[in-house]
Amino acid sequence: MMEFVRLLRVHLSRFAYPLISFSIIIAATGFGLVSPGCVMHRGSVATAESAELSSAYLDLKEGRYSLAVAKYLLIVQQKPNARDVEEARFRLGECYFQMRSYMDAGAQFQNYLADFLNGKFAAEARQYVLKLQEIEKSEREREDLRKKEVETRLKHWQDAAKKEQNSPEIATQLGHALWDAEQYQQAAKEYLRGIRLDADKRNDKLISSRLKFNQDGSVTVLTPDELARIENERNPIIVVNDSDYRGGRDIFTYEPRWYIVTGQVVNRGGQTVRDIGVLVTIYDFAGHVIDSAGYAIGNMKPGQRRSFSVRFTNFENIYNIYRYECEPVFQ
What we know:
With 331 residues, this protein is of the alpha+beta class. The chain has helices at residues 2-13, 16-30, 38-61, 65-78, 82-98, 102-115, 122-163, 168-180, 184-197, 205-208, 224-234, and strands at 211-213, 219-221, 237-249, 256-267, 273-283, 289-300, 305-312, 323-329.
């Protein structure tokens, strides 16, 4: 009997700390120091959000930028606490920068500095803003160099054409220089002059990509604007870097509550496209539509990229979602 009592005391002593801690919590609750249910609830939320933040950061470091964007956007939307939102806002800028979506990156860093002027990542955000300014400056300098090179080449072939007016090769080269100088109609005249001097010039790959010889004998000059019009009729807007993500963990079951689809829209045409949007549809294993939602982008200039993120909650079981489709729409 004495041995049994001793073993029982040893056994109970293993649970002394949890019992004492639980007693303290109950006592504090009884005296109004802790709201009933808040201790475990808040702790679970903080743990869940920290896990989401760590998961997003791992995706960022391993180059899964689209997936990281989805997770950071989710944190920003949930706004669990100022610290997590601050980091998520900054990391979003980093993701967009790595994805070369410089407009979105600049907007994120500027917004971060507006809200967290002396924040944890303020110095890094300012460095990114400087990098973006350097990128913009470099692009302007490259464009200036290109224009000077075109001007020099154009003058060379103009002088040559004055000396040898019956040379099909000089006419063709002058046409190329005029085209690069964006003098498309004048370039077309030189191309046609070169073809009159040498019919084989009609088979020149560059000329045939710039002039369309119609059945009625007319010629259509395929300027960038004309090509943009043709491309817009086909498919100017595309979706790239799209991905899906299940997030928004329930604090009790830790099951994901939201299905998120994120990606980027690119205007690969040659002119501004208006009223762009993305229609995202989710399907089950049998191919049945579960839900669909739209995301408004707005107007986009040639070559511009914009990001989108759509969150779904209208489903019976999140694991029934098998695939998604993103369809760009525009005027």
